[in-house]
Design goal:
The chain contains seven helices and 15 strands.
């Protein structure tokens, strides 16, 4: 069983092991509880029965989400674990995952005033970023990574040398290569920065619990995008 970690009121995180080219990058699943008690499960994973029970103890699972084309690794496991829920994903996700999904954008009306969703335009992965208004939390998939000091030596070396993250944080070189229209992508980042977020949850790595807006501005600038 993966430990369910409270992050803020109505916000929890589960972290699962996940390997990539010998690296241990992990997979974060964020669970958001709406005011009416329904749950949004952001990202899929190899959910154990105990994990499913722990999530259901928080409220009523109502939506399953994968917010980028690159997060199809556990789509089948997620679908089996929460069979019958609306599964929301970007255009093209059924083709890469083999799983039928519903449109993520526009988001469900039930999320209005609680969760905002923004497509990162100008790049191939169709990543959507989320903002949980009540906890002032930005939730991303692969836009940023944050590998802390406790990762293994190979993961640390790969993050710095292959992903080109000098301090284990930032926008990976692979992600930057997916950007086809820098102007459109930059506009999306600036729109994202209009959100009043204080915390950042990444799809892979550690949570940035405070001052995240300043950190995101710095990491965006290092990738060549001035977000003001």
């Amino acid at each position: 069983m993966t430990s369910l970690q409270p992050i803020a009121e109505d916000l929890w995180l589960l972290n699962y092991p996940m390997g990539l080219a010998g690296m241990q990058i992990g997979r974060n699943v964020t669970v958001i509880r709406l005011r009416d008690g329904r749950l949004v499960i952001h990202s899929t994973a190899p959910f154990a029965p105990e994990d499913i029970a722990a999530i259901k103890a928080l409220g009523q699972p109502a939506w399953l989400v994968d917010a980028t084309l690159f997060h199809d690794s556990f789509a089948k496991e997620g679908r089996r674990a929460f069979d019958g829920l609306p599964y929301l994903a970007p255009p093209g996700f059924p083709k890469v995952s083999g799983i039928a999904t519903e449109v993520l954008d526009p988001p469900p009306e039930a999320w209005a005033g609680e969760i905002e969703v923004l497509l990162l335009e100008g790049m191939k992965a169709n990543e959507h970023v989320f903002f949980h208004c009540a906890s002032r939390t930005l939730i991303v998939c692969d836009l940023f990574f944050n590998f802390g000091p406790n990762v293994s030596g190979w993961t640390r070396w790969s993050a710095r040398q292959l992903m080109r993250l000098p301090d284990g944080m930032g926008m990976s070189v692979l992600f930057r290569l997916l950007i086809r229209d820098r102007a459109a992508f930059g506009r999306s980042l600036r729109r994202m920065m209009e959100w009043d977020f204080e915390r950042l949850i990444v799809g892979h790595g550690e949570v940035i619990p405070s001052d995240a807006k300043r950190v995101v501005a710095r990491l965006s600038g290092r990738a060549g995008f001035d977000v003001g």
